[in-house]
Amino acid sequence: MLIFRHVSGLHRAIELWRKKGMKIAFVPTMGALHEGHMGLLERASHYPNTRVVCSIFVNPTQFNDPADLRTYPRDSVRDLRLLVEQGRTDALFQPELEEVYPPEQPAATFSFGALEQVMEGAMRPGHFAGVGQVVARLLQLVEADYLLLGEKDYQQFMVVRDLLRQLRERKEPPSLENRPNTGGPSMEVPKERATRMGGLDQKGKNKVDPNNGGSNAGAVTRSAHRIPSLIMGPTHRDKGGLALSSRNQRLSPKGRLKARRIYAALRQARVGWCRETPAQLVQKIRSGLAEEPDFRVEYIQLADSDTLAEVVDWKNHTSVRIFAAVWIEGVRLIDNTVVFP
């Protein structure tokens, strides 16, 4: 597994893979890896003639609460061990902040309309604007053919799907620069950092590609308009049904056991929807969760799977999901599941 902390080394590897006719499958993460991430990487590795790139970057622009950013779990040693042990990742990209958001490049802005005005968008103002910024930037850097995200963050998946639509419709390539683009996206690298741009091996030493040399060794010819196919991987759960996430690693063993009640409550919607109105069903599930004194229910919502519009009656919906955000032990957990079909 190649390890890159700078864009130039990543681009050099991608160029070599492209020359060999390889495609790129990309799994972006914020670290604190779990079986959900590993499942996406496993799935990505099975696409033919494909190299798998995983990124670990805790994106500050999607945190509306500074305390949440400070306490977000980070364990780079454990993450690296998991990736190496699994053996499905060809390249790990662990960029510093200035690699993702160069000071000289103004960040693009994206609006997602109704998709960002409900549930997570309503509770975390600016969150999805930050998601759009970082995904657009990472796609500019990786230029993947496949982008894999998890079902647990279903609303985020829908937002990214809309982001890809917007990028397809833009005349400019997926870039965070507002200046005219004449040759596809590029990255300027200060000379004093050039010697550190070859990627890192597992011992933290620079990797050197013997097949590349000269001052343009980091150059790469990249498609200016490559928009990846978006793929959703299933939610991974523990044996009691708790959706695996980076944040629930902060729960105590007792808290994890209690948190399993969230999914159990949501599953009631699948068997109860035909006997009750949407409002009655939501209230029933909310009341049941509120009986647990350690829970603070932020929202329970039924939403159309395609638009995320709130479901107020069962008519005119071909697919409905139920979503929840619940606090326990100071940790905010989200989950969702299909109600029908």
Descriptive overview:
- This protein is of the alpha/beta class and 341 residues long.
- It folds into two domains: 2-233, HUPs (Rossmann fold, 3-Layer(aba) Sandwich); 247-340, Pantoate-beta-alanine ligase, C-terminal domain (Pantoate--beta-alanine Ligase, Chain: A,domain 2).
- Helices cover 33% and strands 17% of the residues.
- The chain is built from ten helices and nine strands.
- It has helices spanning 7-19, 35-44, 66-71, 76-86, 97-100, 120-123, 127-142, 154-169, 253-272, 278-290; strands at 2-4, 23-29, 50-56, 91-93, 146-150, 229-233, 295-304, 320-328, 331-340.
- A six-stranded parallel beta sheet has the order 1-4-3-2-5-6.
- Helix 7 packs across helix 8 (154-169).
- The two termini are 41 Å apart.
List the helices and strands and how they pair.
Elements: E1 2-4, H1 7-19, E2 23-29, H2 35-44, E3 50-56, H3 66-71, H4 76-86, E4 91-93, H5 97-100, H6 120-123, H7 127-142, E5 146-150, H8 154-169, E6 229-233, H9 253-272, H10 278-290, E7 295-304, E8 320-328, E9 331-340
Parallel strand pairs: 1-4, 2-3, 2-5, 3-4, 5-6
Antiparallel strand pairs: 7-8, 8-9
Any idea what the CATH superfamily of the largest domain is called?
Answer: HUPs
**Adjacency order of strands in the biggest sheet:** 1-4-3-2-5-6
Mean pLDDT, to the nearest integer, reads 86
CATH architecture of the largest domain: 3-Layer(aba) Sandwich
User: Which percent range describes the beta-strand content?
Assistant: 15-25%
Write down the overall geometry. Answer: globular
- The level of helicity is 25-40%
Number of E-state strands: 9
Question: What do we call the CATH topology of the largest domain?
Answer: Rossmann fold
User: How many separate structural domains?
Assistant: 2
Rg computed from alpha carbons, rounded to a whole number of angstroms:
21 Å
Largest sheet: 6 strands, parallel
Uncertain residue ranges: 176-224
The H/E string reads EHEHEHHEHHHEHEHHEEE
What structural class do helix, strand and pairing data support?
alpha/beta
CATH C-level name of the largest domain:
Alpha Beta
Helix tally equals: 10
Intertermini distance:
41 Å
